[in-house]
Amino acid sequence: MALILSGDEIDYRTTKCGKYGHAEISFRCDRAIPKIEAEHLISFLEESVADGATYDFGQNVVFGFSILYVGGSDERRLREPDFQSIPIAFVDSLTRTFAIQIEQRRVAEICAPELKPDPPKLINGAFVCSDFWESKGTVIFRQPPTGNFSGWACGCTNKKHDHTNRDNIKETTIYELAVRKPELIKFLGLPEGVRVSLGSDEAVFTYKEKRRPVPLGDL
Ligand SMILES: [Zn+2]
Fold first, then answer.
1. Between the CA of residue 201 and those of 58, 88, 103, 213, what are the distances in Å?
2. pLDDT at 114
3. pLDDT digit string, tens, across residues 79-94
4. pTM greater than the 0.90 cutoff
5. Distance 132 CA to ligand 1 centre (A)
6. Which protein residues have their CB within 5 A of the ion that is ligand 1?
7. 133 alpha carbon – ligand 1 mean position (Å)
8. Angle at CA 67, nearest 5°, toward 31 and 92?
9. Residue 53 clears pLDDT 80, i.e. is over it
């Protein structure tokens, strides 16, 4: 089930970065995001600063599926993509980033309990068939990621569309997929070897030749 957001936001802030001569780092997110998610990020930031990492103004930081922008004035402030603009525009919140992590973990568990999410980076490449953006049904599968390629290949469900013909295959980015097909985001954290066939009312997961249909309302 999708997270129900309240519209109220909480501010979080590190307290141990100053000890290492680094500015404290803050961010905000919706109250509906479980505190433990934000606390994990706070601990990660504090531990990485203790280990010598720095978060400089204007820097991009990869965090799970998301890319965060380090802004702020006296202290550092993390911002997330608005998931609407191409190129990426950043907003003063991490709500979407946390919500996506929670969703991707849950979908991996539903697909196969032994699966751990392996989110690609938003800037990674993906393949789509030339009819994909207009297609209602969707089939996506993940090959082993290599270099900047996420491993994801996404196609329409028209059996007459030849996906083995290179002229019918285009390159895109995970970020463009997230912006133009937001309903796919929850599946994009699935690791290699997974195939998802998305119809109007159910998703069919295939992993290690096991087929698992799940009503869309349960995802
Ligand atoms: Zn196609």
1. 42, 31, 18, 10
2. 85
3. 999 999 999 999 999 9
4. yes
5. 6
6. 129, 131, 155-156, 161
7. 9
8. 45
9. yes
